Structure formats: C-alpha cells, structure tokens
C-alpha cells in the first residue's frame, strides 16, 4: 500500500516570535510525506529547480519516501515567505513565487498509476487534476487547498472538487470556498460540489470530520511551545491519510481514528521550523499521541 502525493516542494522563509529562517525546505508535499511516511509508503510527484538542496530530503528517502517522481529542472524552486502574528493565529504571506511549478507538466510513473490512495496537496488545481487523470482506479482521493488557489483559480478548483472523496481545509478556507459564513452551511455546500467527507482543521481547536449526516470532533494535541505553525495542515493530512492507507479502511470508524493521527503529526510540525521535528521522530511517538487523543475524545460521532 502506498499514497501517491503531489504538492509543492518549496523553499520557505518564515518569521515567528520564536525566530526566523530563510531558504529552508518546505511545501505541501514535503510536510505531507514527512508525516505520512511514519505510517505508510509515500510516492511524491513534484518539481524543484537547480537551487533546491535535494540532499536535505535524504532523511525522508531513508524512511522510504519514493522521490522517483520528483524532477529537478533548470530554474528557481517554488518559494514561499510568511510572517505570523505573536499569538500565531494569523499569518501574512509575504511572497509566493511559483518558479518551476509555473511550467510543470507532471508525469506519473507507470508503476504509480495503480496507487490506491491519492493526495492532491496544495498546489495549482490544474496540476492536481493532471496527476489525478493519470491514476487508474484510486479508492480514495483527498485534496487540500488554500486561499491563494481559491481566489485565483476557482474554476479549476471546482473541477477538482467534483472528483474528490475527501477535502481537507481550514475553517477560514471552508467559509471562503463556499461563500457561506456559517461553517456547517459551508461544509454542506462543499459536499454538494463533490467530496462526501470534509475535514475542517481549526489549529489549536482541533479538527472536525464531516461525513454525510454525521460529524466527529477531534481535539488538537496541546503544544506548550509553538515555534512555527507552517505545514501543520499538510502534516495533519499526512497523519490522517497515512493512518487510513495503513488501516486499509475508509469507513466512518477509520475516518474518526485517522483524525487523531492527523492531530498528532500536525502537532509535531509546529514544534520546530521546517520539517525539523520529523527528522528523528519515530512512529511510536506518533502512535502514543494519537492514542492519548483517542482516549480523550472517545470515538463517538454526532448524527447531524
Ligand atoms: P500550511 O501551513 O499547512 O498552509 O503549509 C504551508 C506550506 O505550504 C509552506 O511550506 C509553503 O511552501 C507551502 N505553500 C504556501 N503557499 C502555497 C501555494 N500557494 N501553493 C502551494 N504551496 C504553498
């Protein structure tokens, strides 16, 4: 079993009250695979420029992440800069440069076309669609997006939504995407566009998995010393889908259990800059956090 993941493979510059970094590895596909690879196999599709420190992905390669589908071409890598408020609740994007992603035409290796789970990480929805079109018969297709694409590419994004089983978004993005102020209303509208399951991430308030007529709330793991929230959403997706792929089941029970794995991996992402916290992290630590959360929250859902 393995997850096919497409997304940004980026260089990030981040400022938080804990400090700042510039030119560190990041991007949705990198945070996702750092988390998911602790639970299952991951195959990455993406592109980097000549400036990318690919050796820094070595720890993920050692953990079994397959980067055969990551191509390196002349040009600059995707670059993102962001600054967080002191309470970490808001961030401003100071710069987004698509670089080599602007002309990327993703090719899924023949051996990957039978992937059972597909994760369309945050990137241009046209690229998400090109990857999805090459996969033969996936059993679960999940995607993430953000305000950048909701504002700039609403048409292509809608076409992707129509092909999804699961959409992962944060609460503000759900409201923005649906054009509805009320979260439950927004989720209903999004479900009407395609995905039967919508996972709403609410930072330190945890997450809610919305199914058809049911909802499940999972708390966040309380992190005492947040360093950098960047990538928490992608790491959540990695834990969530990594668990589902490992379990081989996508029913309601599994989706609720998976939320605790997402909370666990999301919490590790915020404890350091870039993917640093994942370097020496072991699966057992993730399982411990997830199980504590499951005990805390039980495993009950609410019928809507
Ligand atoms: P998150 O904090 O979960 O939203 O993820 C932040 C990561 O997403 C950073 O590492 C960025 O490199 C990457 N990112 C930021 N903006 C975009 C975008 N417009 N498209 C794709 N990836 C992005």
Provide the fold topology.
Layout: E1 2-6, E2 10-16, E3 19-26, H1 28-36, E4 41-48, H2 58-62, E5 66-72, E6 78-84, E7 91-97, E8 117-120, H3 125-134, E9 140-144, H4 147-152, H5 154-161, E10 166-170, H6 171-178, H7 183-193, E11 197-201, E12 207-210, E13 214-218, H8 232-247, H9 252-269, H10 283-297, E14 302-303
Parallel strand pairs: 1-4, 1-8, 2-6, 4-5, 8-9, 9-10, 10-11
Antiparallel strand pairs: 2-3, 6-7, 11-12, 12-13, 13-14
This protein binds adenosine monophosphate.
Core attributes:
304 residues; four-stranded mixed beta sheet; 10 helices; 14 strands; binds adenosine monophosphate
How would you describe this protein?
With 304 residues, the chain is an alpha/beta fold. 35% of the residues lie in helices and 26% in strands. The strands form two sheets. The chain has a ten-stranded mixed β-sheet with strand order 5-4-1-8-9-10-11-12-13-14, with helices on both faces. Strands 3-2-6-7 form a four-stranded mixed β-sheet. A hairpin with a 3-residue loop joins strand 12 (207-210) and strand 13 (214-218). The radius of gyration is 17 Å and the shape is globular. Bound molecules: adenosine monophosphate (AMP).
């Amino acid at each position: 079993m393995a997850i096919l993941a497409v997304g940004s493979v980026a260089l990030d510059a981040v400022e938080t009250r804990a400090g700042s970094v510039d030119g560190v590895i990041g991007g949705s596909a990198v945070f996702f695979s750092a988390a998911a690879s602790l639970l299952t196999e991951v195959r990455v599709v993406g592109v980097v420029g000549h400036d990318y420190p690919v050796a820094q992905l070595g720890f993920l390669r050692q953990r079994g992440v397959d980067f055969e589908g990551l191509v390196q071409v002349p040009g600059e890598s995707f670059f993102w800069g962001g600054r967080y408020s002191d309470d970490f609740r808001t961030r401003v994007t100071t710069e987004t440069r698509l670089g080599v992603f602007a002309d990327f035409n993703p090719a899924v290796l023949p051996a990957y076309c039978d992937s059972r789970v597909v994760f369309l990480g945050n990137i241009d929805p046209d690229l998400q669609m090109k990857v999805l079109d090459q996969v033969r018969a996936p059993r679960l297709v999940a995607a993430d997006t953000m305000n950048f694409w909701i504002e700039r590419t609403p048409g292509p994004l809608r076409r992707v939504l129509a092909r999804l089983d699961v959409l992962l978004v944060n609460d503000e993005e759900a409201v923005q995407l649906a054009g509805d102020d009320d979260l439950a209303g927004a989720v209903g509208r999004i479900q009407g566009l395609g995905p039967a399951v919508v996972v709403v991430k609410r930072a330190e308030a945890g997450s809610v998995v919305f199914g058809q007529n049911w909802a499940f709330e999972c708390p966040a793991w309380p992190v005492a010393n947040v360093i950098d929230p960047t990538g928490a959403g992608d790491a959540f997706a990695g834990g969530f889908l990594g668990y589902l792929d490992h379990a081989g089941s996508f029913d309601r029970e599994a989706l609720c259990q998976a939320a605790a794995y997402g909370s666990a991996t999301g919490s590790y992402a915020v404890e350091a800059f870039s993917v640093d916290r994942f370097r020496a992290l072991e699966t057992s630590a993730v399982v411990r956090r997830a199980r504590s959360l499951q005990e805390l929250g039980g495993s009950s859902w609410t019928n809507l």
